């Protein structure tokens, strides 16, 4: 498959929004990723452009993100990049989404205490299901299966 897999390090920019959908639980939040470089002339690190991504976490990952991640926290997100182009209200919009396969705190910038989640039964979509309820907060990407193992 020719998917763009990536790992990004950034800060949580919005409070995670969690929804229980017929296809299963999902959490969404915005991630701010700012590149830094050392400016020898100033003798200091300077920030460059900030990129924003919408992170989608499905299933148990979504439930765990909702219970673990808050605005301003440094996180590492791994997943598939999806770039969408669309027309809204006569304007052209481009958005970069990450369908997360893993989300965790960036331990190079602080500490965290892991708590094992209790088992939870996620609703599963029937095979070949085309019609899905869309959350009112944004158009959702295709659901991703839970990783095995």
Verbal overview:
The chain is mainly beta and 149 residues long. It has a domain at 5-105: Nucleic acid-binding proteins (OB fold (Dihydrolipoamide Acetyltransferase, E2P), Beta Barrel), CATH 2.40.50. Helices cover 7% and strands 50% of the residues. It has one helix and six strands. It has one helix at 59-68, and strands at residues 5-12, 17-21, 24-39, 44-58, 74-88, 91-105. A five-stranded mixed beta barrel has the order 1-3-4-6-5. Mean pLDDT is 84; it is low at 122-136.
Biggest sheet record:
5 strands, mixed, barrel
In terms of per-residue confidence, which ranges show pLDDT below 50 for 5 or more consecutive residues? 122-136
Report the portion of residues in β strands. over 45%
Indicate the CATH architecture of one domain: Beta Barrel
Mean pLDDT: 84
Task: Itemize the secondary structure elements and their pairings.
Blueprint: E1 5-12, E2 17-21, E3 24-39, E4 44-58, H1 59-68, E5 74-88, E6 91-105
Parallel strand pairs: 4-6
Antiparallel strand pairs: 1-3, 1-5, 2-3, 3-4, 5-6
Q: What attributes characterize this protein structure?
A:
149 residues, mainly beta, OB fold (Dihydrolipoamide Acetyltransferase, E2P), 6 strands, NA-bd_OB-fold, ssDNA-bd, DNA-binding
Compact description:
Residues 117-126 have a biased composition (Low complexity). InterPro entries: NA-bd_OB-fold, Primosome_PriB/ssb, ssDNA-bd. By secondary structure, the chain is mainly beta.
